[in-house]
Amino acid sequence: MAPRVIVVTSGKGGVGKTTATANIAAALAISGNKVVAVDGDVGLRNLDVIMGLENRIVYTLVDALEGNCRLNQTLIKDKRVDNLFMIPTAQSKTKDAVTSDQMVNVCAELRKDFDFVLIDSPAGIEAGFRNAAAGADEALVITTPEVSAVRDADRIIGLLESMEKSPIFLVVNRIRPQMVKRGDMLGVSDVLDILQIGLIGMIPDDENVVKSANEGKPLTFGDESRASVAFKNIAARITGENIPFMNLEAPQKGFFARIRDAFGGGR
Amino acid sequence: MSIKSIISSLLGTGGAHSKDISPEKQLKDVSSGKQAKGRLAFIIAHDRVDIGPGKMDQMKKDMIEVLKKYFDINESQIDLKLENEEGSTALLATIPINSVLGRNGRTARSECSSRK
Ligand SMILES: Nc1ncnc2c1ncn2[C@@H]1O[C@H](COP(=O)(O)OP(=O)(O)OP(=O)(O)O)[C@@H](O)[C@H]1O
Ligand SMILES: [Mg+2]
Prior knowledge:
The complex is a heterodimer of chains A (about 270) and B (about 120). Chain A has about 270 residues and is α/β, with parallel strands linked by helices. Chain A contains eleven helices and eight strands.
């Protein structure tokens, strides 16, 4: 299989790009792919923290670009699962520390060693986004079901199309099924009507996302929370599996039901 | 009254005929999710062609000047709006014309489309 380079983007900030990058990268690695997650948000690095690898950083992407080290010295291997790596960026630099051409070269280099390169992009339409996206073939656009986020997603999708990224898929994050049911939140079908782009995932708003960020342990490492399953499903769809979308409105299985299942119950 | 016309009258984009329910009442009846969708459709249609509602008003005035040379029209009944259909944006204009021959005025509806 040819290596795939995917940028994770959004128009509006704070909608879940870094969370999605970490969890999808982890899920892809667990299902047997060799994966590197690259922090493309120069100056506001977060991916290391969400993945729980912040204590292992020696060199950053910017160090490699400035010639202070080789690119493979920036790779941090996740010891908790096989095949998962992360490249941190610099916290003390600005967006200008990396150029589009450099990102294209970095991605070309990483293609030689990995099945998947996932790039966590900064929000917005500025140089930081353009650089992060420069070396990618494909894109995931993250949005929440809110007017401002969807509006900005439309803008980003237009830019990604003009940059000839393909395919471009949408992830709708932080869905609150009860609110959608009451008619107080945009449903996924509403968002798709407006944006006219393929859907690859629907992630519920889930407290476990916050807990996993606190612990520095991607949900998809093991957790069976709904958000975790939703992220794993995205990873599976990326690899071409045909996984039906979760029914977010179905009641979640309680503790006892899960225990029963574990002991072969649930007949 | 269809949902679409409720939304468009909420947005003030409805035609001259959609004022049978007061906006206050409609606002209460339409869920916030529906309002969100209506507002989004409107905002994105304008974003995609890069013409804001203010510019549309200006264009409407310009169009009226031209149209007046050819037709007897009632300015207050003209309705211009942008609509999205499957990735392309259309400018929909409803321009009722007062017929010169005295029969009840027919409505001429013209459309022009552009890819987004
Ligand atoms: N599905 C979810 N359920 C609950 N909380 C979530 C969910 N997704 C993201 N969050 C929370 O939203 C916040 C922003 O997430 P994240 O940092 O991934 O967004 P981002 O798009 O990378 O932000 P930025 O634009 O600043 O880079 C975090 O506090 C995260 O825990
Ligand atoms: Mg981020």
